[in-house]
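Researcher: Next entry in the queue.
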Amino acid sequence: MLRAIKDGYEAHHRIRIADAAVVAAAELAARHIPDRFLPDKAIDLLDEAASQLKLEAESVPDEVAAAEQALLRLEIEQRALSAEVGTAAQLRRQWLDAELERTRADCGALRAGWEAQREMVARIRELIRTEETLRAGEDQARRSGDLGRAAEIAYRALPEISRQIEELEAELAAARTTGLTLRDTVGVADVAAIAASWTGTSSGELLAGEQP
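Model: Structure for this entry, 212 residues:
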């Protein structure tokens, strides 16, 4: 049942959901959330994990924000020292000039990397929405007896959309840099993190409990 509604949640949040995350949601909900009922509690786990990942993708990453805050502090110090005289102040200004140049370059690279990844995720989201629209069109065509249209969608349009999504996901994976990773797919760890917040048990313990 969860797999049957996965496509709808992907289209709603415009976030991919890994099959392993679906399985994890069902298992974690069944074993560790006794005060709620299946399949609702598993669906809620997936829904909240997808919402959290979508919010994460739309927010400025901590790495970018920290770098820009560091740059701002240097700029404030540079301004404060601009009227100072003496050898110590001069040496400090020289150091600040070099540090500002390096930090501006680092900030620019981080923000550019994040913007590029965000653009890829946005394109993937639009393709997911198109994919869901096509699926609905295929279903409507089948029900109305328009088998030619249904076949066109099933065997040409949908595979082409899937190909484009796969290419973009590969491009996104290649664009990721150490410490700056924008994700577009809900995984097991995302579901476990939500379950941990509900139960007060660490996600590591929850996942360890699922090992055979």
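Model: Helices lie at 2-13, 19-32, 40-58, 62-81, 87-144, 147-175, 188-199, 203-209.
Researcher: Noted, moving on.
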